[in-house]
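Q: Structure tokens for this one, please.
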Amino acid sequence: MLLSYFPYFLAIAFSLAIAYLFWRLQKLQSNLRTAELELDRCKLTLEISEDVGRFGSWHVDAISNVVKWSDYVFDMHERRHSLGHPPLENAIHYYHPDDRPMVQAAVASALEEGTDFEFRARILTEKGNELPVLARGTCQIGGDGVVLGIFGCFVDLSTPEQRQFG
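A: Here is the predicted structure, written as tokens:
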């Protein structure tokens, strides 16, 4: 007798499972929207902080050799955003020729040995201006001890009279 009701019980259980999965999906979508709003807030806070604090952030991916710059770093280099991020091998050319050996040594040591760095250097902008900066890089090390990348920042050390970008 109970066996004859089994298909009904199965249908009810299946319906409840579908309803639960639908509810769970709605909850996950809500959490995702909340996380996206928080990410947008953090991005805006970073952009405002960079502008007020006169610093910009950057990242070098050690696997792909891709360099990513924040908007303020683009502005510091007087590089149009439409040109995109420069390749790692070209980024060294933004430094004053006298500073390049020091910069190359610091970046090579970071990528090969995971050594963090900090130095003062001069950036030569795309418009030919010279901008003094403090550069700091912190290595991102994987679980296997391999350097995955370098997170860093530039601090604009110029005086108001020297600042011509924006």
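A few notes: Residues 1-53 form one domain. The two ends are 81 Å apart (CA to CA).
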